[in-house]
Amino acid sequence: MTNMELITATTLSTPAASVTFNSIPQTYNHLLLKYSVRGTESNFTTGITLLLNNNSSTVNSRTTLTGTGTTASSSQSSLASLLFGGTMPSASNTASTFGSSEIFIPNYTSSSNKPFSLISVSEGNTTTSARTYIHTSAQLIRDTNPITRIDLTPNDFSFEVGSTFRLYGISNT
Amino acid sequence: MPSTMTPIATTTLSSAASSITFSSIPATYTHLRVVFTGLGDTSGNAGRMTVNSDTGTNYSRTQLLGDGATAYSNASTNSAFIGLTTGNFVTYPWFVNVDIFNYTGSTYKTMLLSFSSDRNGLGDVVRSVNLWRSTSAITSIQLTTSGGNYTAGSTATLFGIKAAS
């Protein structure tokens, strides 16, 4: 019995301003999205925006825990219209280094509001706090519709060539 | 496609209940994963987990927490249970993921737990490493509360993960 199945995979051969997973099958119980990414912005890091069901009008919120190698911090954002898709190293960061992120959305087809978790990390053999990080967050999307689409968009510029995205479906039975 | 993570059992509560139990866990996997989403019905209480019905002071943990304002870390020793949730587990749905490594091995059992709860203005992000000081194989898991119940609709699934096929 196969339980965790790859739904779709994308590896960028050219920079992309966004990546979309559309027509997500509704035959699983949970979704797991894993991505290894780097940005083209001339900066150390670039944030990523996550959009579910292409709906920016839902009211979302999140609690975040972050470590940079020198500082640990926590923050809360309520009544946000956009979800947080993590942070990635960008063009000014350690060369040949991609960040790793993972989003787990349990019960994505349910008719309830949907909590999910994100972990987003990057390590570049540096003690410079602006270059290395661990983000983990609890997020809540107050949308009772099943999730059928996921969009990831850098806050500035694009995902770099070689960035990979894999969406898995996980079944309870 | 070879099996990666196989569901062993799922329980979705049809009515409120104070516990969910996975028993007679087969010894044919390498690791276990518990995925638990739900709500409690009594504020101030919290979710808990034990294994093999062991309620002795054989559990400990080190955790990293963020509540939206403060990040902190602490440790707990000689506990009679593994804390699954914080006391804020009513009203907004949360979820817990527990990875139990080498659950059939003859060494103490290490577990990695993540608890995620956002409550629109408040929240908890908890990541902890837990230890059950027993050399016995894990054959059952109990998800309980410190008081009150898990609400109807709360769902827990136990997965088995094999090292290689």
Helix content of chain A: under 10%
Q: Give the overall average pLDDT of chain A.
A: 90
Give the CA-based shape of chain B.
globular
Q: Return the structural class of chain B.
A: mainly beta
Mean of residue pLDDT values of chain B: 91
Q: What is the percent of helical residues of chain B?
A: under 10%
Rg of chain B (C-alpha, Å) = 15 Å
Q: Estimate the strand proportion of chain A.
A: over 45%
- Rg of chain A, alpha carbons: 16 Å
Largest interface here, residues on each chain? A-B, 41 and 42 residues
What is the general shape of chain A? globular
- Tell me the number of helical segments of chain B per DSSP (H or I, 4 or more residues long): 0
Give the end-to-end Cα distance of chain B, rounded to a whole number of Å: 11 Å
Quaternary structure classification? heterodimer
Biggest sheet of chain B: strands, sense, closure? Answer: 8 strands, antiparallel
Number of separate helices of chain A = 0
Q: What is the string of SSEs of chain A from the N terminus onward?
A: EEEEEEEEEEEE
Q: Which spans of chain B of ≥5 residues are poorly predicted at pLDDT below 50?
A: none
N→C terminal distance of chain A: 9 Å
SSE arrangement of chain B, N to C:
EEEEEEEEEEEE
What structural keywords apply?
heterodimer; A: 173 residues; mainly beta; 8-stranded antiparallel β-sheet; 0% helix; B: 165 residues
Explained architecture:
The complex is a heterodimer of chains A (173) and B (165). Chain A has 173 residues and is mainly β. Chain A is built from no helices and 12 strands. In chain A, strands 1-12-3-8-9-10-5-6 form an 8-stranded antiparallel sheet, with no helix packed on it. In chain A, strands 2-11-4-7 form a 4-stranded antiparallel sheet, with no helix packed on it. In chain A, a hairpin with a 4-residue loop joins strand 5 and strand 6. The radius of gyration of chain A is 16 Å and the shape is globular. With 165 residues, chain B is an all-beta fold. Chain B has strands at 5-12, 19-22, 31-38, 47-51, 59-66, 71-79, 82-83, 94-100, 109-118, 123-132, 141-145, 155-161. The chains are: A mainly beta (173), B mainly beta (165). The A-B interface holds A 1-5, 29-30, 59, 61-67, 72-76, 78-79, 104, 106-107, 112-117, 136-140, 142, 170-173 and B 1-7, 10, 35, 37, 64-73, 92-95, 97, 114-125, 127, 153, 155, 157, 159.
